[in-house]
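Researcher: We're teaching a course module on how sequence relates to structure. For the next exercise, students receive a sequence and then see the predicted structure as C-alpha cells, so they can try to spot secondary structure elements on their own. Here is the exercise chain.
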Amino acid sequence: MKELRLAPHNAFTRQTRILGKPGMEAQITLETVGCNHGKCTFCGLGKTDSRFKEPLGRKGLMSQLKWAKDALEQEMPSIRKASVLINSHSVFESDVIRYRALIKGMHFIINNFPALAQLSLESRANLITKGEISKITRALGYPPLNFMELAVGIESGTEWVRQRQMRKGLTDVRIYETAHILAEYGWAMRAYFIYNCPGRPFEARTEDFKLMARLLAELKKETGVTLTLYANRGYVPEGLESRFRDFRIANEHETIKDIAAAAKLCKDAGVTLDADVTGSDEALTHASALEIKPGFAQAVSEFNAAQEIGALLGWLSRSR
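Model: And here is the predicted structure for the students to work with:
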C-alpha cells in the first residue's frame, strides 16, 4: 500500500545571507493546529481553522518534511539554511508539535540537507524558556555557535505600539530575556518586522522600521546575541484579502528608501537585515494591488546577498 503523504503549507527557496555569506534558504511552513492566540492585528491568521485538530506527532511531521525534501531535491546541495515555520504560535509548544516528533524532525533535516549551516525554528518570544532551549540544545548534541536560530515576531521597536495597536502582548523586558537565553546557549535570533499591519498607516510603519532597527542594535549590544532583522511583507490568508486592501505597501521607491535607512542602522550595529518584500505571496500582492517590478526585486536580492547599501542607492538613482 502506498504511503499517504501529507504536504506542508508550502516549501520554497530564496537567496539571502546566512551567517555572513550569501546562500540559499529553504522555508518550510508546516500545517499544524491553528494559533491559540489569534490577537495580533497584523497577522491575518486569527484563530484559523486547520485540518489538524491535534498536535503534530511523528508520523504527521515526518510526512510533511519528507514531502518538502522531495519538492526541494534539485536545490538541496545549495541550501545552507532551513527555516521551519508554522501556522500556529510555537514549534516548541506540545499542543502544536509533540516534543519527540520535533526532535526527530530536526534530526531529519540535519541529516538530509548536506550543506546546512543553520536551522531556524519559529515561536512567539514570550513563550521561550531557558529550560526549553537548554533541553533542545542537549538533544541536538550541542550544535556549533549560531547553527540554531529562533525566529520571533517583534514587529516594532516601541512597546506601546506592540501592546496597544498590535495587541502582541510582548514587552521589551521579555524580548531582552529571550535574547539573553539564546545568547547563553549559542542560538541566533531572527526578528520579524511585517510591513502590512492594518491600523498602522505606511508612514507609521516607516518609523516603526527605523525604531525596530535601533531596538535590535541595542539588543545586540546588551546581550551579544547574533541578530537578523527579517522585514517581510506579511501574510494574507485566502478569503481575508479585504482586511488588507485599505493598507497598501508604498511604491518601490519608498520601500527601497525604508530598507536603506534601516540597513545603515543595522550595519553600524552588526545586525543583518534580510528584506523579503518582493511579493512572493500572491495573495498579498493581490491585496496590496501592487505589481512587483523585476528591477526592484533584483535590487533587494543583491542587497540581501551582499549587505551593501550601494545596490539600493543605485536603484534609487536609476528610478528617478
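Model: If you want an answer key for the exercise: The first helix runs from residue 58 to 71. The radius of gyration is 19 Å.
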